[in-house]
Write a structure and sequence with these properties.
The structure holds two protein chains of two kinds.
Chain A: H1 6-9, H2 17-24, H3 30-42, H4 44-54, H5 61-87, H6 91-118
Chain B: H1 3-7, H2 10-20, H3 23-31, H4 34-45, H5 48-65, H6 74-92, H7 98-105, H8 120-132, H9 136-147, H10 152-159, H11 163-188
The chains are: A mainly alpha, B mainly alpha.
């Protein structure tokens, strides 16, 4: 009997891009629309986004805009990865650098030792 | 994108990013929200170019700031960044009215709801009574939405309210229900 209010307690989660676009373009049945709207009630993020996207007259443009934005994001990420690669040496580079430093210190110590002992 | 990354939850991706520090994991995570971010930009800035700029700004901010902080709820954090950026842009343009909105709405996505701590059964048993305490309009919309499973449009047709009114009656009605149930629960203890 109480189960009829179950829906209001449900924690609703994610929505796929496809579902959201279908909702915006009115391609969903009333039941499916209701499911999307339940997500909107629980998430200001989804609710704001639907409101903003609904205001776009030409919904066909959205796919192209997403494609561009994601492309720019990937570009930023690969630039960042390249930069990190330059800044953070890998394990092998670190080992070689440490070995060279140790060898150099040994040579310096030996030279100083020889200098003191020859005088 | 590797298929297994696609299957991971936001939380799993975020944990893995903190462990491995690979930015491409952030890319996967952010791309899940590009459409929503653009939508939020459109809602507040009402201009395609500005909304696109806002998304770019949010991407950049996430890429720079996420490595520095331990973020628990990625989606809420992202929404907060996007919204704050848009509100800041509006303020720069001289729309001072938005400050009130920001205070009022900032936490909605993060609202975990104290009610979730109360046992579900108890909540369900007092829900029907609690609904009676709502205003007539909220009661009607909440009942049609959650009980009769009607969509917004169907509720608009059935009640004669506008779409905005229906949305607000459902959102505020749900929030009020939580408060009523919480109050009852504390009263019983």
């Amino acid at each position: 009997m109480n189960d009829k209010w179950q829906d209001i307690l449900q924690k609703n989660g994610q929505i796929s891009e496809q579902k959201l676009m279908d909702y915006l373009e009115g391609r969903l049945s009333p039941d499916e629309s209701h499911e999307v709207e339940k997500l909107m009630v629980d998430s200001g993020f989804i609710d704001d986004a639907v409101e903003g996207l609904s205001e776009m007259k030409d919904k066909q443009k959205i796919a192209g805009i997403l494609h561009d934005l994601n492309g720019q994001l990937n570009k930023k990420i690969s630039q960042k990865a390249k930069k990190n690669k330059l800044l953070i040496p890998d394990q092998l580079t670190l080992t070689v650098a440490a070995t060279i430093t140790v060898l150099l210190l040994i040579v310096i110590a030996y030279v100083i030792y020889r200098m003191y002992h020859s005088s | 994108m590797p298929a297994h990354l696609d299957q991971m939850t936001d939380q799993e991706l975020l944990q893995r990013y903190y462990r491995e520090g690979k930015s491409d994991l952030l890319g996967v995570l952010l791309q899940r929200y590009t459409l929503l971010l653009f939508g939020v930009g459109m809602k507040y800035l009402k201009n395609e170019e500005e909304a696109k700029d806002a998304v770019q700004h949010v991407f950049l901010k996430v890429l720079t700031e996420l490595p520095r902080y331990r973020v628990e709820y990625f989606k809420s954090w992202l929404y907060m960044i996007a919204k704050n950026h848009c509100l800041m842009k509006l303020r720069e343009k001289g729309h001072t009215k938005v400050e009130i909105d920001e205070r009022m709405m900032l936490v909605r996505d993060e609202e975990e709801g104290k009610a979730s701590h109360i046992e579900k059964e108890k909540l369900l048993s007092s829900m029907a009574e609690a609904v009676q305490e709502l205003s007539e309009a909220q009661k009607t919309c909440i009942t049609l939405f959650y009980l009769k499973k009607k969509s917004y449009q169907e509720i608009v047709s059935a009640t004669g309210f506008s779409l905005m009114q229906v949305k607000s009656y459902i959102q505020n009605g749900k929030r009020n229900l939580k408060i009523i149930l919480q109050r009852r629960h504390e009263h019983e203890r």
